[in-house]
Amino acid sequence: MSFFEDLKAQLNSIDKEAIRLKFAEATDGLDPESIKLKLEQSGLKSKVESWVDNSKESIPATVEEIKTALGPELAKLAAKTGETAEALAAKIAETMPKVVEKLSSMGKGEK
């Protein structure tokens, strides 16, 4: 089972620290909050807000948006994890909304 598959399984947990640690393990030490901040700063604030706002439908980030937001850091991370930048961006795009949702004290995961 890959780190990201294990992370997706962990997202069913209510243990926020376990989710944070699993994400860091899957991304070679990146904190979900730092990625969230990078996404917000790169113009994706409305998408990020949709992941935690119960009154909004979650709007996913695209692979291209993840690649743009993380820039050169994505290539470095991909090299460390053995993934291609494209594959890693796809995995982050898939899991990041769920991670942010679960880690947010007001997120949809806290219903």
Automatic annotation (TrEMBL):
SUPFAM superfamilies: YidB-like
InterPro entries per the UniProt record, alphabetical: YidB, YidB-like
Name this polypeptide is given: Unannotated protein
Source organism of this protein record: freshwater metagenome
Phylogenetic lineage: unclassified sequences, metagenomes, ecological metagenomes
